[in-house]
């Protein structure tokens, strides 16, 4: 979502980042959701990533509810689900700034609103601090809504080792996560992390960052070629047993369309299917 908003000229300054568009460009958010749906996405993450109180102030609840309602109204139809996103309280790539387990109360505040809006999934995403990830998952799972967690090692895979991500995945599963994902880690580096969580979580997947601007996986690269190259990495994740795949920073509509095609091809090749 953030990448698509920037491509369409929407300003996303910190600390509100993509949440700013809920006031300035709600129609653009809706259009992005519709385009992802047309490309074949079936789980649509509402633009709630930065709708916490400490990021947007006293209007946080209004903005969070608006984000969910935009996602829901923009992606109607059978098989479509909406996820409410909960992100780290501080910078995703600065685990040293994280309040750790003490963040639970603030995450619970947003989780309650997402549950009240009847999201299908609460996605605690882009966590590089294991204790904060587990605290967010615990707060989300206690709402009764299916909860997933996406852990990140960062675009260059420097924030967590595969072993550390495996340990964090175990903690998040114990806290109530139903699925564990590798999220916003550079696609070039995501494979070892997928392998690390494969033996820990029965449901797992990945949605990677396109990585370096010059890496040819996204950003300003030729869309078709970038999507094809990205899909080659996703093939390895599926080979490892992943059942959830998507894209994060630097990826776009073309990437999701190619992933949809890849998943469809896999499904149709299953034994016993015509």
Task: Walk me through this protein's architecture.
- This protein has 274 residues and is an alpha/beta fold.
- The protein has one domain: Homocysteine-binding-like domain (TIM Barrel, Alpha-Beta Barrel).
- 46% of the residues lie in helices and 14% in strands.
- The protein is built from 11 helices and 7 strands.
Per CATH, the architecture is Alpha-Beta Barrel
| Dominant shape | globular
Quickly count the helices.
11
**Tally of individual domains:** 1
Order of H and E elements: HHHEHHEHEHEHEHEHEH
Low-confidence stretches: none
How confident overall, as mean pLDDT? Answer: 94
What structural class is derived from the secondary structure elements?
alpha/beta
- End-to-end separation in angstroms reads 36 Å
Widest sheet, order of strands: 1-2-3-4-5-6-7
- The CATH superfamily is known as Homocysteine-binding-like domain
CATH topology-level name: TIM Barrel
Measured by DSSP, the beta-strand proportion falls in: 5-15%
Largest sheet: 7 strands, parallel
Count of strand segments: 7
């Amino acid at each position: 979502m953030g990448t698509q908003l920037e491509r369409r000229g929407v300003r996303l300054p910190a600390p509100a980042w993509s949440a700013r568009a809920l006031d300035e460009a709600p129609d653009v958010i809706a259009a992005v959701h519709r385009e992802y749906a047309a490309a074949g996405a079936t789980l649509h993450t509402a633009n709630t990533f930065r709708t916490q109180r400490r990021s947007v102030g006293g209007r946080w609840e209004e903005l969070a509810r608006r984000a969910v309602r935009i996602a829901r109204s923009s992606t109607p139809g059978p098989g479509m689900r909406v996820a409410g996103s909960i992100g780290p309280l501080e910078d995703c790539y600065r685990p040293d700034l994280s309040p750790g387990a003490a963040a639970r109360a603030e995450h619970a505040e947003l989780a309650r609103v997402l549950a009240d809006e009847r999201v299908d999934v609460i996605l605690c995403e882009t966590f590089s601090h294991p204790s904060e990830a587990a605290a967010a998952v615990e707060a989300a799972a206690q709402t009764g809504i299916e909860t997933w967690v996406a852990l990140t090692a960062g675009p260059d895979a420097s924030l967590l080792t595969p072993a550390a991500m495996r340990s964090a995945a175990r903690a998040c599963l114990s806290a109530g996560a139903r699925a564990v994902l590798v999220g916003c880690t550079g696609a070039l580096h995501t494979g070892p992390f997928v392998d690390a969580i494969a033996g820990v979580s029965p449901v797992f997947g990945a949605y990677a960052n396109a990585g370096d601007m010059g890496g040819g996986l996204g950003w300003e690269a030729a869309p078709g070629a970038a999507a094809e190259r990205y899909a080659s990495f996703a093939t390895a994740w599926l080979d490892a047993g992943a059942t959830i795949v998507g894209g994060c920073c630097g990826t776009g509509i073309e990437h999701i369309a190619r992933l949809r095609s890849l998943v469809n091809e896999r499904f149709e090749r299953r034994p016993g299917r015509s």
